[in-house]
Amino acid sequence: MKEEQRFAQALERICERASEQGNVVSEGQVREILTGAGFVLEEAQLALVHEYLKGKRIGIGEPADPFDYLTQEETDYLDTYLAALSALPEASEGEKEAVTLSAMAGDPDAKRRLIELFLPQVTEIAKLYAGQGVFLEDLIGEGNMALTMAAEMLGTAENAQEAQGTVASMIMEAMETFIAQNAAEGKTGEKLAGRANDVLEKAKELAEELGRKVTVEELSEETGMTAERIREAVRITADNIDYLDTKGMHG
């Protein structure tokens, strides 16, 4: 097995260990796993491993600080948003339980109050998911929508604790789904962009060879690409393929 593969597997084992421990791993555990895989790293090299783990939202010795993953713009937004939430009346644990029970019974006023009480928790959960390719503001928005939905779905809970757990779970699930969808869209976009670039290169080569723009049919015949794939590339690049004759191809 190549050294690069062994090192990648060692990093994967470190991530798995951290996952079992609440996304935290000690420096000793990092060294132990790397040494077991045959790697004795110098401090500078180990620091790079720590940076890699930080990028994976894994804390070294203690939980990672959510604020490490916020941009300045997100931090400013969060400060403003939390300042607005601070104007809402606070509630004791007893009041929160009473509000939850009333919301479970279908009281509209209690549902609205429950949403107010959980808004700060939405921001706390959102910070835990920061740094995963989506804006904090969007995460909070998704969480707030899930909170509103959850307030209408507590009738089947057996007690206030279960109901509150349901609310938190729905908020987290909404954020995780949003992150997953965003990642999938990003991968799809990268794939389509790669295809468009491939078409561009092939069109350029054939156009230079013929000394003129080429048609979709000519490019398809020359490269084996389907006409639909070529048209898709043209759409992605907003018709900006200089070497391809796009007249009449949108009909």
Q: Could you describe the 3D structure shown?
A:
There is one protein chain. This protein has 251 residues and is mainly α. The protein folds into three domains: 3-64; 71-184, Four Helix Bundle (Hemerythrin (Met), subunit A), CATH 1.20.120.1810; 186-236, Arc Repressor Mutant, subunit A. The protein is 69% helix and 2% strand. The protein is built from ten helices and two strands; from the N terminus they run αβααβααααααα. It has helices at residues 3-20, 27-36, 43-55, 72-85, 93-104, 108-128, 136-150, 160-210, 216-223, 227-236, and strands at residues 24-25, 59-60. The chain has a two-stranded parallel sheet. The longest helix has 51 residues, at 160-210. The model has no long low-confidence stretch (mean pLDDT 83).
Features:
Arc Repressor Mutant, subunit A, Four Helix Bundle (Hemerythrin (Met), subunit A), 10 helices, 251 residues, 69% helix, 2 strands, mainly alpha, flat, 3 domains
The beta-strand count equals: 2
Class inferred from helices and paired strands: mainly alpha
- Regions with little confidence, pLDDT below 50 for 5+ residues: none
Main sheet: which strands, in order across? 1-2
Task: Specify the number of helices.
Answer: 10
The amount of helix comes to 55-70%
Quick one: overall form?
flat
